Amino acid sequence: MTGGDMWAGLGSTVAGIMFAWAMFQQYVPLPLRRYVAKYTHRLMGYFYPYIQISIHELTGEHMKRSEAYTAIEAYLSSKSSERARRLKADIGKDSKSMVLSMDANEEITDEFKGIKLWWTLNTSIPKTQSFSFYPSADVKHYYTLTFHNLHRKLRKLFTNNPSENWRGSKRSMWCHVVFEHPATFQTLAMDPEKKQEIVDDLVTFSKGKEYYAKVGKTWKRGYLLYGPPGTGKSTMIAAMANFLNYDIYDLELTVVKDNTELRKLLIETSSKSIIVIEDIDCSLDLTGQRKKTHEEDEDEEENDPISKREKEEKSSKESKVTLSGLLNFIDGLWSACGEERIIIFTTNHVEKLDPALIRRGRMDKHIKLSYCSFQGFKVLAKNYLDLNSHHLFPKICRLMEETEITPADVAENLMPKTITGDAETCLENLIQALEMAKEEARLKAVEETKEKETSAKPEMKDESLLAKEEAKDKDQAYPKEDAKEGESIKADEALDKLLERETLEPAPDV
Ligand SMILES: Nc1ncnc2c1ncn2[C@@H]1O[C@H](COP(=O)(O)OP(=O)(O)OP(=O)(O)O)[C@@H](O)[C@H]1O
């Protein structure tokens, strides 16, 4: 086939397609055309793995300029002058400077959190004007943002206590950033069986839509994560979110004004999300609020006017969320708005929490995160040093049985401190840290025993003094008429000696 034949063949194919398209548009009824269009789009979707988002310049009934369009224009302004080939010049707001922006049908490549994006400025021309060469006032502009389907769902981390650079809309009480924590259940140092149990629980929950509907329960689940600092509570939340592909709402209770605001925040959370209240024991004086009666408060205030004023000032700044408000948040009627939600409380002091807050049904699963076990260490050794075994492992195992160390401390020691730092040095660092922890624990125990002894002694002395005073009182109240002065002095001396002996004897263990 010659080049000329090929071009002639291609030309007639294109003409054939265009003719068929014109026939289709003219003679096929609209509902059928729509039906065909719908399925062609779906089919195209399999081959075209990109997502496109259009942001139109004029929106709404009154065709007002969209805020989003203006924001994108401003955002792209500097990028356009650097990267676009065809630029549009305009006079700036101050009428002195020239503002450059991308021209119609121009494309700019951009990057967001490592994801490649394309911005295009498009024009849509009304059908009646399609063949006019002159710009028309009816020509509408819109930006198109294109990115790969893979990045369609970026997990988000929301907060109700944002710092300056957090994004959010004026209407929402939550602000967000893209959630990018790398933690997974694989990298979590924990006993494998316990870990598997949690994973199974999450899978059962996420597939439980019908089950929850059948038993008449809202599709939500509460987890209480408790344990000492550095045992992986926050890390586990991140692993859960990554595993389930859920967003996280990090609820800072101390900045929530009152129960009404708490309810509003709850309503604004989306499905497929984890709502977290970290350090719940520090967030609110929940136990105090319940136990302290009103009368007690009044008594205290009357006795101390300064404390009353201080309290008033403090309470005007502090959150007025109450325990009952929080209980309502977890399982009140409003908590049923939305589904597939997990609520997590974390605490370092589970014993401080009001039992009502963490009873089963509210916090369905209580997960204790504890000091690092040898199994946990092996996970970290694999993560940090790519080691499955080492001749120092048995020593580490023995030390871990003898002392307590958090996974955070183990992780810190397993991180090479220099570029040339090898696995052996890291393991030796860990052994050193374990030996230090063991020694510290021993010294602490000695210190505690001493403290117990000293705190027990004054008590005994006090009791003895009391006995002495009582005896004296008795003597004064019922003076023995026949007792001679010398005898009474002797009795006192004997009592003193007795007391001296008692205070010198070691105190019994309490
Ligand atoms: N179980 C664990 N598995 C893997 N890494 C862990 C684990 N626990 C802690 N770490 C490491 O220690 C760091 C601190 O842990 P994390 O913040 O999750 O602890 P926490 O229990 O939430 O502490 P806190 O109570 O102080 O908030 C993490 O960034 C992680 O690198």
From TrEMBL:
Superkingdom: Eukaryota
Region (Disordered): 289-317, 446-510
Domain AAA+ ATPase, residue spans: 219-373
Positions of transmembrane segments: 6-24
Any GO BP: response to stress
Catalytic activity: ATP + H2O = ADP + phosphate + H(+)
InterPro entries attached to this UniProt entry: AAA+_ATPase, AAA_N_dom, At3g28540-like_C, ATPase_AAA_core, ATPase_AAA_CS, Mitochondrial_chaperone_BCS1, P-loop_NTPase
GO terms of molecular function: ATP binding; ATP hydrolysis activity
Keyword line: ATP-binding, Magnesium, Membrane, Nucleotide-binding, Transmembrane, Transmembrane helix
Ranges of compositional bias, category Basic and acidic residues: 305-317, 446-504
Cofactor list: Mg(2+)
Protein family membership: Belongs to the AAA ATPase family. BCS1 subfamily.
Protein name (database record): AAA+ ATPase domain-containing protein
Organism from which the protein derives: Tetracentron sinense
